[in-house]
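Reading is simple: each integer encodes one residue's backbone shape. An example follows:

___
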Amino acid sequence: MANLNFGDLRLTPPKILSLGFMLLIAVGTALLSLPAAAVEGRISFIDALFMATSATCVTGLAVIDTGTQLTTFGQVVLLVLFQFGGLGFVTMATLITFVLNKRISLKERLLLQESMNQHSMQGIVLLIRRVLIYSLIIQLSGAILLAGRFMADMPFGKAIYYGLFHSVSIFNNAGFDLFGDIHGPFSGLTRYVEDPIVNLTSMLLIFLGGIGFIVLSDVIDFPKRKRLTLHSKVVLTTSVILVLAGAAVFFLLELNHTLKPLHTGGKIMASFLQAITPRSGGVTTIEIPLLRESTQFLMILLMFIGAAPGSTGGGIKITTFAILVTAVYAKLRGREDIVLFRNRIAKGNVYKAITMTLLSLMLVVIATMLLSVTENADFLSVLFEAVSAFGTSGITMGLTTELTAIGKVLVIILMFVGRIGPLTLAYALKPKNSKELYRYPEGNITIG
């Protein structure tokens, strides 16, 4: 991995990305701590830090209600944070560079390559341009659709503001909402459970934000190229399977429970939204604490898998999940190679997928154990909170507002690591590379 030199400091792209997110969080914390950000008094430092981290890491977990306890200034601070956090501060910095008509240096291209999870620098600037253009178009389209719907419930100016805020929030998979000001604190989108415009727009925004900008660019180029890359095929296929399977299981589990009062169309929309949103969306139309435990555990599994690489979402990522499932299938069939869409997957990618999954699982397990000690809540609620924070999903069973100070710190760490990625953080913290001068003899151990 290439190194970037800044004076006597030797900063690698993972270190710069980690420090950049820390800086955004620090600025956000300072702004949210101002009297102008709170409706009454000041927000405590720990709560301001929590909200800034949740917004920057596009999680959506909130210890205070955004709609009732934050002023317009505080809400705009959150909006800017999850816009920067979703697209990535490197991408937003590149936008400023484009506006100023400055040249993108080699060091900056290396950083862009790392931030977008690309294997090479070829075409990276073009990709960033497309990310910015596509994101702007999608978010504006979502804002227009949502604002048009909200005009039936509120004044014109407020509808425009709500449409813009929620479109940016949902596309960036941030999960923050302002409806506490209308329907009561932490009410979310529950009043729109059977509304087709809100549901379909939200699902589309979450899906487009979650598949990743690389895939989005590839799909838009499909009419010209007449083909998709292997990465796009894996992401799209796995995403569709997870959404369809998740919606079907949710529908069956909740048909005679939380979905019972709804009409047929509402039941279907609610099932699909609740299947899509755990993959980092953060908005719900069904109250999560009212779901069956089996359904809640289903959402935990979906949150842990997360979204696609290079997207606004977290989790272990769809491609990691796809590689692991294919590796198990290949081993059961006695095959040496792991094949996806007639392409053999390099063993390095398999090792990376295993490492990513084990690191993530260890992090969630340790955090869950600690939260079980610090919080007065049942185990499933604690596990749900930990996975939601790590997967930057922003869904909660009600524990977030009840967290102790230590619990808030643990969740803050989980959100940060979940957004940066365990591997990126590990690369940022690792010591200087040293070349191996020898190899040990090969040995065998019994497995299974």
